[in-house]
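Anyone opening a protein record will find just a pair of labelled lines. The record below illustrates this layout.
***
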Amino acid sequence: MNNLSRQRQNWLAANKRPIGFALLLFALLLLTAPTGFAHGVSEDDKSFLVQSSGFQPIPFLYLGAKHMVTGYDHLLFLFGVIFFLYRMKDVGIYVTLFAVGHSVTLIYGVLSGTHVNPYIIDAIIGLSVVYKALDNMDGLKRFLGFQPNTKLAVLVFGFFHGFGLATKLQEFALSPEGLVANILSFNVGVEIGQLLALGAILIVMGFWRRTAAFRQQAFAANVVLMSAGFILIGYQLTGYFIK
């Protein structure tokens, strides 16, 4: 059994009464959930994107970083991915796979004009959060009878996260002048934002893991993570059917 599996088994064994607490946390999430989800863009940013033309690397880089830092659907997934990763080498591998995945589809989606339904894509992004939380709780192995390839899953879900970014940019009539360079700048900004967010998450996780309560709180944290993913899915599917 590897270190990751031992960590999971240790805190799973330490939680004897998860169900009631999980339901309570889920109810609290429903009561406090925001009215909007996924890839929101402020009015000022919308105006800039619509009116911009030519090569403007700095503004697009800033917008990419801002979008990732405030994109809590991406951050929830990233939080789940690194939850039980203790070595920086492992963190680097998984984050790189995620970055490659969403970079490919972000750039391809915008430049090729490939359109996908944003509600469905964002629902899949919510599913990625549910998947990772369930995986952290060793639930996939219990339900499926085997452990899916986690690296492949992170890469595949990264593709969907990239399309989520692309669908938002496709809502605006971006000028074709300098579009390739601007989208590349936006993608670089996304990666910078991801690194900034990841650094903050790792610092908090580092302190948290040193506390005696981590084993007991880890299960509840992943229940909250999974519940947030279900709420994201429900919100997006509701938008899809009532639109």
About this structure: The radius of gyration is 19 Å. The first helix runs from residue 3 to 14.
